[in-house]
Design brief:
heterodimer, A: MetI-like fold, 2 domains, 57% helix, B: alpha+beta, 4-stranded mixed β-sheet, 22 helices, OppC_N (chain A), MetI-like_sf (chain A), MetI-like (chain A), transport (chain A), membrane (chain A)
């Protein structure tokens, strides 16, 4: 869209004639943090999409000999000569007093890290079977690579983190999406049309808010067939949460619409012959994007951290499902902090993701009003 | 079996104590009260013939406060097991031989055919408020509690023989007899675990403080006064004041309730710190005539989350505790021993973590498969228990089948190893033999009705999910899909009690003195709860098993044990019961005899290591908490 050869004169003209979306993108690009956050989020989704290929191991494959292996160090030089990235083999001992497993490097055993390694087989996207992984180590059947360490059952934490991201970044966010679509739609209809429609929507919202949730979950927990996949049950829960959670946003949107529907710019648009749909989407909604974006970015971390909150009823995510919330719950005890602090790695992933979403929201909000000085 | 009526050493000690009654000593805090004239001297507080409690290592010193933690008003078992009293009690010596000694009775005896049991009270024995203990208290319990259908809606089967409830007769102020319609040699074994009615201090069994409780019982109480008490406590019926949750009868809630125990509650729940203080009238002494307990006070601090308790442990705020401590945290506790100035002491748990296939599952096809011993054996031998022990129990447990633990008089070496040898090939062959030869595209076997062979294993034990994940992987190798479901405690309990589940992971406990409580072997809360209900309710509830179902054999063995003419004969029948259990392989035992982790301050003395932790032996109570003491400077 932009041309490097345009003169200053041209540039002004370009700005004057550019579509709002283009202007927003230009403005957004100036927010460096937001831009990097966008890249990070894009990267995370890419990793989640290609989890099977990018994860070095099957996230459920346990190893009897490798419980609580600390993150392994990648070396480049062996006995002074360059051999490329490699790790040393593991020596394992159990402290007879404390029963703690102690791992040390076996410097006689060099295990080079190879790209496009053939390892555990998997069905890629359920389409075809393959065993190709981005990387892995060469060595015996028992030698494994633990870049982020292993958990209590000797499963590779990096692989679990990658697979966990897939659940957390997809299923978890569907509910957020639903609740915003419903909230904005109903809120804007109520605010715009007013009268009986408004009254009806408001009463429905009040009714929904008055439903006590715990008995609802209890009832659901008893009614759902035990065979159902926990991820599907969780998806169902997030959708139900969305059906309950839209009311707040709908109220705010409605109030905002009521205050601006008689303002000059809306009247101008209406008098120019714009249809209601265009008035709403092009003139009214953009004026409250900053609020919506802030609300969305706050709702996402809440959802990630809430993944396991209903698990006491058997409704939230629980092992053997792998998600960031589940992995973090696994690490939330004194034992892990004292003996295996690397299990807190999912916490870092969650913090990074939440910050990225927040910065992205920040940038989007600034960009949403490109004419603002 | 090594049961003896009275260990010779204890009998000698009794004589010794009687002779040295003049040399009685008491705690300084009580001596002060005696000097101030607010308490009678120790000679008047103790019975003529006090119970001599053997110390584990050395004669102790008085004083100190024992700090431990509890989880809320409903967590009364921790405090209860420290100090509950029984008609007779199990004690264990260094070689793990179990014997029984008289508790709050002076002596007990059975007649030749075990139909009449005679008990004698200790002369001069007093309740914690100083009132004498007499057979009037026993008669009150029998007439107005045990036989009161409002308090006890039904007589528990354990107190009946040939369908007839026990009959009680008062001989004199200190002697009473219990008579059964048929021989009941196991009665005393049962008493050591259960006492009468429900276990615990709340219903000590055979005895209730008549002088105190008569004011709250409609037979004796003034109607208006009782109504006033009920109103004060918000009780709708008078029975609401009674029972383990009643504000009057439950020692745990009512500091005024007279007790026989070493300590009594001074600050009841719901307090953040529940305090128990020594009972100045406790009837136990050590071999030198010092009145027990040694420790002045026990303080139970409230905690919400297990992690909070773990933090208290590593910071050295717990003096002695096992309850709510997890074997998974063994390494954590061990590594912080020096920092917290404590020591990790282990006992052996008389239990085995077990997956129960449900013979009563509503799914008929599955039920038929679970009824096939080949399928049960295949599910057993497909599991690599050594790996489970290594990964989930830090190698501290033992791969074994559910059944009596080592050290139990009913231990069966063959049962311990049954189905535990890891052999996936044979497991596959067994399933093929059982007709499960068809497989779907994912490699899972198909059931006779064409559906995939999917088994849902549910559990309420969060820390054991890793165990089930390993089982899941092992069963996938033989073409059986396992779905692991971690559910809330009440939900699992509901499924188990209605028989609506496929498999459940739970503890196979009560595995040392199995004659005291054999329900795990009989199917209760496990592999055949509905059948058990049918049997225990004499056909009124539950589901009747087919006429040729082998579960009838195990019930027959237990019925024979219950009605045997002598203890030896009863024990032989109980051993038959174990054999039937072994031959049928109804359970999928995984890892058992795991350590019970005790955290013990370095100040605490006389706490023995290496005992068996079992409900039937009353947990920590087996170590006789009254003789623990703090090293004083």
């Amino acid at each position: 869209m932009t041309d490097t050869n345009v003169t200053d004169m041209d540039k002004t003209q370009v700005i004057d004639t550019a579509r709002p979306i283009t202007l927003m993108w230009w403005r957004f690009k100036q927010h460096k943090l937001a831009l990097w956050s966008l890249y990070l989020i894009g990267f995370l989704y890419f990793v989640a999409a290609f989890a099977e290929f990018l994860a070095p191991y099957d996230p459920f494959k346990h190893s009897k000999l490798h419980a609580y292996v600390p993150p392994q160090q990648v070396h480049l030089f062996h006995e002074g000569s360059f051999v490329g990235p490699f790790i040393y083999g593991l020596d394992r001992k159990r402290d007879p007093e404390t029963a703690r497993l102690i791992f040390s490097e076996d410097t006689a055993k060099v295990l080079p890290i190879k790209l496009f390694h053939r390892g555990d087989s998997y069905h890629f996207w359920g389409l075809w079977e393959t065993d190709l992984h981005l990387f892995g180590i060469e060595g015996g059947r028992r030698d494994r690579l633990y870049l982020l360490g292993s958990d209590s059952l000797g499963r590779d934490l990096l692989s679990r983190l990658i697979y966990g991201g897939r659940v957390t970044l997809s299923v978890g966010l569907i509910g957020v999406f639903f609740s915003f679509v419903i909230g904005i739609t109903l809120g804007s209809i109520a605010g715009l049309v007013g009268g009986r429609v408004d009254a009806a929507i408001q009463r429905v919202a009040e009714f929904v808010r008055s439903i006590p949730t715990i008995p609802l979950w209890l009832g659901l927990a008893a009614a759902l067939p035990i065979h159902w996949d926990p991820i599907f049950v969780y998806l169902l829960i997030t959708v139900i949460l969305a059906l309950i959670g839209w009311t707040n946003l709908a109220r705010v949107v409605r109030g905002h619409f009521m205050t601006i529907r008689n303002q000059d710019f809306v009247l101008a648009a209406q008098l120019s012959g714009a249809k209601p749909k265009r008035v709403v989407t092009r003139h009214m909604l953009p004026s409250m994007t900053s609020y919506v974006i802030a609300a969305v970015t706050l709702a996402i971390p809440e959802m990630i951290l809430g993944e396991t909150s209903l698990s006491f009823l058997g409704l939230g995510l629980r092992p053997p499902v792998v998600s960031w919330g589940v992995l973090l719950q696994d690490a939330q005890n004194l034992r892990s902090i004292a003996l295996a602090p690397w299990l807190l790695a999912p916490g870092a992933a969650i913090v990074a993701t939440i910050l990225a979403f927040n910065f992205l929201g920040d940038g989007l909000r600034d960009a949403a009003d490109p004419y603002q000085k | 079996m090594r049961h003896t009526w009275l260990k010779p050493a204890t009998a000698l000690a009794l004589v010794f104590a009687a002779q040295s009654a003049a040399a009685l000593d008491e705690a300084p805090m009580l001596a002060e009260q005696v000097a101030a004239g607010t308490l009678p001297p120790v000679e008047e507080r103790l019975p003529e013939n006090p119970r001599v409690i053997d110390v584990a290592n050395s004669i102790g010193q008085y004083g100190g406060t024992w700090h431990r933690a509890f989880k809320g008003p409903s967590d009364r078992w921790g405090p209860t097991k420290l100090m509950e009293e029984r008609v007779l009690r199990a004690v264990m010596d260094a070689d793990q031989n179990i014997s029984y000694v008289p508790g709050w009775v002076e002596s007990y005896a059975a007649n030749e055919d075990s139909t009449v049991f005679t008990f004698t009270l200790r002369k001069g024995h007093r309740w914690s408020d100083g009132a004498p203990v007499t057979t009037r208290d026993v008669k009150f319990w029998y007439d107005d509690v045990f036989n009161n259908r409002e308090i006890m809606p039904a007589v528990p089967a354990l107190y009946t023989a040939a369908g007839e409830p026990m009959a009680l007769e008062i001989v004199d102020d200190h002697t009473f007899t219990v008579t059964f319609a048929a021989p009941y040699p196991l009665f005393l074994t049962v008493l050591a675990k259960e006492s009468t009615g429900k276990p615990g201090l709340d219903r000590p069994g055979f005895i209730e403080p008549f002088h105190y409780l008569k004011d709250f019982h409609p037979t004796y109480a003034d109607e208006a006064k009782l109504a006033a008490v009920m109103e004060k406590h918000g009780a709708k019926k008078w029975t609401d004041l009674w029972d383990s949750k009643g504000q009057i009868q439950a020692w745990w809630f009512n500091p005024d309730m007279p007790v026989l125990t070493a300590w009594r509650v001074a600050t009841p729940p719901p307090a953040d710190t529940v305090v128990m203080e020594r009972n100045p009238y406790y009837y136990g002494v050590d071999a030198e005539g010092n009145q027990l307990p040694y420790i002045d006070r026990v303080e139970h601090r409230l905690f919400q989350d297990t992690e909070a308790l773990n933090l208290m442990v590593v910071q050295g705020e717990i003096d002695l505790q096992q309850r709510h401590l997890n074997a998974n945290d063994f390494t954590l506790f061990k590594e912080n021993e020096a920092a917290g100035d404590y020591e990790v002491v282990t006992w052996t748990k008389a239990s085995t973590w077990t997956i129960y296939p449900n013979l009563n599952t509503p799914d008929e096809t599955l039920r038929a498969l679970f009824d096939d011993k080949r399928v049960r054996e295949a599910l057993n031998i497909a599991i690599d228990r050594e790996t489970i022990n290594e990964l989930s129990f830090s190698g501290l447990g033992e791969a074994r089948q559910a059944g009596p633990v080592s050290g139990s008089p009913f231990f069966d070496a063959e049962l311990e190893k049954a189905g535990t040898v890891w052999d996936p090939d044979r497991a596959n062959a067994l399933l093929d033999e059982a007709g499960l030869t068809e497989r779907d595209s994912d490699g899972f076997r198909l059931r006779p009705d064409g559906k995939r062979l999917t088994l849902v294993i549910e559990t309420r034990h969060n820390p054991l999910l890793s165990v089930l994940e390993l089982v899941q992987a092992d069963w996938a190798e033989i073409g059986v899909e396992a779905l692991v479901r971690n559910l809330d405690r009440t939900l699992v309990q509901q499924h188990v009690e209605t028989g609506e589940f496929e498999l459940v992971l739970d503890n196979f406990d009560r595995s040392s003195i199995i004659t005291a409580d054999p329900v795990r072997f009989l199917g209760r809360y496990g592999f055949a709860h509905n059948y058990f209900k049918w049997w225990s309710s004499a056909g009124n509830n539950g589901v009747e098993p087919p006429a040729d179902h082998p579960i009838r054999d195990i019930w027959a063995a237990w019925e024979a044990a219950q009605s045997a003419g002598s203890l030896d004969e009863a024990n032989a029948h109980a051993q038959d019961m174990v054999s039937v259990f072994r031959d049928n392989l109804w359970t999928i035992g995984l890892i058992g005899e795991t350590p019970a982790i005790f955290v013990k301050s370095n100040e605490v003395e006389n706490f023995p290591a290496g005992l068996i932790d079992d409900d039937a032996l009353r947990g920590i109570g087996l170590a006789q908490a009254a003789q623990f003491y703090f090293k004083q400077d």
